[in-house]
């Protein structure tokens, strides 16, 4: 059984994952509007991934007998000055999510709640990958630039990331 503090924090994380999915869908829409199909596909796929993160948390809550509470949320931003600004915001958001996961791990460790601590290790590794991914996208944007054909090449490169994920056999998320 989860403590009330852990239940509350896991509910916050569930809602943060839903917000992340909405944020990336909105960014995908912005990219599609700007004819950046590769970025749009990548961000749409990433929104789906965020929802799978939410479902994993939701299932864990169910398994522990806790009630998951889905709350309202603020609408994500829908305009950006540039592709670089948008991906900078994604990177900042992922760093925020990492801090929230680390806070959950800290709570699980201090309670102690070893089952939840073990469950959260997947999220720790996932956030490391997320930050690395978006930092590498920003590095490519910096390297290639977005002037002239640079924007086209960036869109192509990011589109390849979406294609490589869709062609990779996705393993189902094991139950928590």
Automatic annotation (TrEMBL):
<dbReference type="InterPro" id="IPR001519">
    <property type="entry name" value="Ferritin"/>
</dbReference>
<dbReference type="GO" id="GO:0008199">
    <property type="term" value="F:ferric iron binding"/>
</dbReference>
<feature type="domain" description="Ferritin-like diiron">
    <location>
        <begin position="1"/>
        <end position="145"/>
    </location>
</feature>
<dbReference type="InterPro" id="IPR012347">
    <property type="entry name" value="Ferritin-like"/>
</dbReference>
<dbReference type="InterPro" id="IPR041719">
    <property type="entry name" value="Ferritin_prok"/>
</dbReference>
<dbReference type="GO" id="GO:0004322">
    <property type="term" value="F:ferroxidase activity"/>
</dbReference>
<dbReference type="InterPro" id="IPR008331">
    <property type="entry name" value="Ferritin_DPS_dom"/>
</dbReference>
<feature type="binding site">
    <location>
        <position position="127"/>
    </location>
    <ligand>
        <name>Fe cation</name>
    </ligand>
</feature>
<keyword id="KW-0408">Iron</keyword>
<protein>
    <recommendedName>
        <fullName>Ferritin</fullName>
        <ecNumber>1.16.3.2</ecNumber>
    </recommendedName>
</protein>
<feature type="binding site">
    <location>
        <position position="17"/>
    </location>
    <ligand>
        <name>Fe cation</name>
    </ligand>
</feature>
<keyword id="KW-0963">Cytoplasm</keyword>
<feature type="binding site">
    <location>
        <position position="53"/>
    </location>
    <ligand>
        <name>Fe cation</name>
    </ligand>
</feature>
<feature type="binding site">
    <location>
        <position position="50"/>
    </location>
    <ligand>
        <name>Fe cation</name>
    </ligand>
</feature>
<dbReference type="InterPro" id="IPR009040">
    <property type="entry name" value="Ferritin-like_diiron"/>
</dbReference>
<dbReference type="InterPro" id="IPR009078">
    <property type="entry name" value="Ferritin-like_SF"/>
</dbReference>
<dbReference type="GO" id="GO:0006826">
    <property type="term" value="P:iron ion transport"/>
</dbReference>
<feature type="binding site">
    <location>
        <position position="94"/>
    </location>
    <ligand>
        <name>Fe cation</name>
    </ligand>
</feature>
<dbReference type="GO" id="GO:0008198">
    <property type="term" value="F:ferrous iron binding"/>
</dbReference>
<dbReference type="GO" id="GO:0042802">
    <property type="term" value="F:identical protein binding"/>
</dbReference>
<comment type="function">
    <text>Iron-storage protein.</text>
</comment>
<keyword id="KW-0409">Iron storage</keyword>
<dbReference type="GO" id="GO:0005829">
    <property type="term" value="C:cytosol"/>
</dbReference>
<dbReference type="Pfam" id="PF00210">
    <property type="entry name" value="Ferritin"/>
</dbReference>
<keyword id="KW-0479">Metal-binding</keyword>
<comment type="similarity">
    <text>Belongs to the ferritin family. Prokaryotic subfamily.</text>
</comment>
<keyword id="KW-0560">Oxidoreductase</keyword>
<dbReference type="GO" id="GO:0006879">
    <property type="term" value="P:intracellular iron ion homeostasis"/>
</dbReference>
């Amino acid at each position: 059984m989860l403590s009330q503090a852990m239940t509350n924090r896991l509910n916050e994380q569930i809602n943060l994952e839903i917000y992340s999915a909405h944020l990336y869908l909105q960014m995908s829409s912005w990219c599609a509007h700007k004819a950046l199909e590769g970025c749009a596909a990548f961000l749409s796929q990433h929104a789906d991934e965020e929802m799978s993160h939410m479902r994993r948390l939701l299932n864990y809550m169910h398994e522990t007998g806790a009630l998951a509470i889905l709350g309202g949320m603020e609408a994500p931003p829908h305009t950006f000055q540039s592709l670089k600004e948008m991906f900078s915001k994604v990177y900042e958001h992922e760093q925020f999510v990492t801090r929230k996961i680390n806070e959950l791990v800290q709570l699980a460790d201090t309670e102690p709640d070893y089952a939840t601590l073990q469950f959260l290790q997947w999220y720790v590794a996932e956030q490391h990958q997320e930050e690395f991914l978006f930092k590498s996208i920003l590095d490519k944007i910096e390297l290639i630039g977005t002037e002239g054909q640079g924007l086209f090449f960036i869109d192509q490169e990011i589109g390849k990331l979406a294609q490589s994920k869709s062609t990779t056999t996705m393993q189902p998320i094991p139950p928590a």
